[in-house]
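Minutes, project check-in
Item: structure for the 393-residue chain
Input as provided by the requester:
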Amino acid sequence: MIPFRDALDLLLTAAPTLPSESLGIESACGRVLRQEIHADRDFPPFDRVMMDGFAMRAGDFASGREFRITGTAPAGSPAVELSSAAMSCVEVMTGAPLPLGADCIVPVEEITNAGGMIRVSADFEVVPGRFVHTAGSDARAGELLLEPGILLGSREIGVAASCGEAWIEVSKLPRIHIFATGDELVAVDETPQPHQIRQSNASAIACALQRAGHPSAASARLRDDPMESALAVRSALEESDWLIITGAVSKGARDFVPALLDSLGCRCLFHGVAQRPGKPAGCWIGPVGQVIMALPGNPVSALTGLHAFVLPALAVASGLPLPKPRLVIPAERFAGLSGMTHHLPVTLGDDGRARPAPTGNSGDFIGLLKSDGFVTLPPRGGLSAAHPFTPWL
């Protein structure tokens, strides 16, 4: 068996980077950026008024606090010029260019207005530049604002739109095929016989992938028939970048997946990981670089393996840095297991500390409802005051 961290490192290194594509900005949300985005002009491009009120010269306040209104400056109009006459002011709206010649803003709440004249409140402190968003104070034209390898959320999309990036280069979505193996499996909408169970792994995995931004292309059941399954897997390899297979990966008499993958020309990266749950997990690389992650069929093992291996590797393959897990402090000492990594389901209390919420066994998927995610504990003897926490998706 290979240590968990070594297995993950092998997968992260071997998984090919996904190609890129150009998408309209309205379709790029949640994708990974694959280009640089620079400011196409100064931000803001003009001295921008930040409050509804009146613009004037701060120096005029030495002569009093009554001003004559000589113009109006609405947002969306070119900058107007403040009259050169002393004690002049221009009514301004939020977002308008600061009138030429003005250097301060008095908010409308500080004004008494009557007959084309205003009076500024006696206790208002006049400060030049106050309530003015100075041109170029956020970014200068040509400045790098967004680098490749970031996830495009609302802030990033807003910045890209402000720079005129109507089309954005992003990572393509991986084509993912999910297989659940087992003659005992029936469809979700079927009524199982006493010796059968409804398929749940593929549905749970597809949900987690979608929440992580990687919608699966297809899912299917594989019967415990190596020849029949070989045809389905070969076909899926031709149409997929990633295959996720649950079940038939251990060393039992009917665990045919490792031999099937070998027969299809796939190269084994590892098979058998020093971890609990999910010790039989393995990874193969297909003939043209496809990644095949084979996970145990027990639901807890399958879902844990997806979060521990597949989701981090898909993030890196999309161009993101390896996700940094949140570290949590246990409410009690976690001892770890001898010689293997332990992915221990936990619940997080109101104090932010982790408390064990183990399932009854690796088939107890209902028991996962009691936990918020899992902490990854090093083998017994590894010292750590805080542990990486992975939330369930």
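Outcome recorded: The first strand starts at residue 2 and ends at 3.
No further action items on this chain.
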